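Researcher: Re-running this chain for the archive, since the previous output was lost when a drive failed. Same request as before.
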Amino acid sequence: MNKDESIRFATKYLEDLLSFFGINVAVDSTVDDEVIQLSIPSTSLNSLLIGREANNLRALQHIVSQALISHEAELVRVSVDVADYKRQRAERIAEQAEEWIREVRQTGNSRRLNLNAADRRIVHKVAKDYSDIETHSEGEGHDRQLIIEKVPIN
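Model: Regenerated structure tokens:
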């Protein structure tokens, strides 16, 4: 299945999955960097769809991605968002990253953070705007941490 067919399939699959739970909405879809972005509009069941720590969102992404893989789709990576939850969260994490970076710049002390992979990516991206700051991740799995530190002056 080519890219366009992959997008249509993922969109319809998610709409059908939601309708199974009585949520009849049109899902918007786009592609960004080879990832199918599926956006579910706000409903009375937003909190159920998002779940605790966005676990239900990740489950929806996984289900749609596995369906694409089983249909040998060209695009198989999927991001599902509900009522702009991820965008708003990313904005909050970016703002928090700016504060962490200011603190590291002022004190010179590095900062270790327990963040999920998506949040770590956001902080890495924000930190790229600062020539005197570097970030990297250490550890494995759930123990992986992000480190923000000042670049040593030579």
